[in-house]
Write a structure and sequence with these properties.
This protein is mainly β. The protein has strands at 3-7, 10-12, 18-25, 33-39, 46-51, 61-63, 71-76, 81-86, 95-102, 122-126. The strands form 2 sheets. The protein has a 6-stranded mixed β-sheet, with no helix packed on it. It has a 4-stranded antiparallel β-sheet with strand order 1-3-8-7, with no helix packed on it. A hairpin with a 4-residue loop joins strand 7 and strand 8 (81-86).
């Protein structure tokens, strides 16, 4: 059974940092594109970042405009985990963050229905 589990959320002050983890079981994350999404209260779920499956020896990373320059997505294949390092956090980053898998990243911005194996989410709250 394919399963993703998010962790690492919490309460942080504006300007602070958090690192979210997306741990996989039942499949090798390296073989799938993994994306991070978030959903704030009263808002639709939106794509934040995506890292491709291995292409040769390269992974490609994609970021929503809201994440560019502040967030970094990465993989640790030994731990079968994808991370989202979030720096310079803002109150508008407050949301439940989810990870999900797909064959490619192309649909992450629109939360394409191909994305599946959703985790339960981890709450990120940015507040002073």
């Amino acid at each position: 059974q394919l399963q993703l589990v998010e962790s690492g959320g919490g309460l942080v002050q504006p300007g602070g940092s958090l690192r979210l983890s997306c741990a996989g079981s039942g499949f090798t994350l390296d073989s799938r594109a993994i994306a991070w999404f978030r959903q704030a209260p009263g808002k639709e779920r939106e794509g934040v970042s995506c890292i491709s499956s291995r292409t040769g020896s390269i992974y490609y990373a994609y970021y929503a405009d809201s994440a560019k320059g502040r967030f970094t997505i990465s993989r640790d294949n030994a731990k079968n985990t994808v991370y989202l390092q979030m720096n310079s956090l803002k109150p508008e980053d407050t949301a439940v963050y989810y990870c999900a898998a797909a064959s490619r990243c192309s649909g992450y911005v629109t939360v394409d229905t191909e994305f599946g194996s959703w985790g339960q989410g981890t709450q990120v709250t940015v507040s002073s």
